[in-house]
Amino acid sequence: MKLKTNDAEPSTDINDSAVITIGEEKTTFANLSASLGEIRKLKGVIGYILRNDVSAIIDLATSEKLNEYAIFSYEISEACKKMIEVFNFGETESILVEGENVKVLCMNINENKVGVFMEKDATHAGIIKRILL
User: Fold this and answer.
1) Handedness of CA 51, 128, 120, 86 (dihedral sign)
2) C-alpha closest to that of 103 among 78, 84, 128, 82
3) CA torsion through residues 19, 22, 23, 24, sign
4) pLDDT averaged over the chain?
5) Distance CA 92, CA 15 (A)
6) Out of 1-5, 18-22, 46-50, 91-95, which region has the weakest mean confidence (pLDDT)?
7) Which residue has the higher pLDDT, 32 or 133?
8) Distance of alpha carbon 9 from alpha carbon 54, whole angstroms
9) Does pLDDT of 20 surpass 80?
10) Which fold does the domain 24-132 belong to in CATH?
11) pLDDT digits (tens, 9 = 90+) for 33-78
């Protein structure tokens, strides 16, 4: 049995190439994802959360604390946003919150929210530069 095809339809060959245009937001998310993947390998970095309205990437050394870190990152971002408004700080590049053993660096880049979790003695200044590149 032979299937009849409509000659008016263009044929698709495996060797054909397609050009996909990615919007600025998706490009920023992809670039941040790549940068954070490299940052994740640094000594003292526990992991990161990258999220926007439609996507999220979570890479943490310990998966049993995934929910805690995700909620913590979200709450820090929301609390800091409120403080920035109340105290009229204007634009902020980053927010660093230090605990007894862990610190988290939070940044908003376009519509993307980044949370990088580190051991307390890890250096965060270089991480900020790497994220902003």
Assistant:
1) negative
2) 128
3) negative
4) 80
5) 47
6) 18-22
7) 32
8) 34
9) no
10) Beta-Lactamase (3.30.450)
11) 999 999 999 999 999 999 998 888 999 887 788 888 889 888 988 8
All structural domains of the chain with their residue ranges: 24-132
Reading the block at residue 78, the tokens are 């929301």
| Best CA proximity match to 127, nearest among 58, 48, 57, 72 | 48
The half-sphere exposure of 54 on its side-chain side, counting CA atoms within 13 A, is 4
Residue 12 Cα to chain centre, angstroms: 35
Type of residue at 52 = N
Q: How many CB atoms lie within 10 A of CB 20?
A: 5
pLDDT of residue 80: 87
Pull the structure tokens for residue 50. Answer: 């990258």
Q: What is 72-125 written as a DSSP string?
A: HHHHHHHHHHHHHHHTT----S-EEEE-SSEEEEEEEETTEEEEEEEETTS--H
Cα–chain center distance at 80: 18
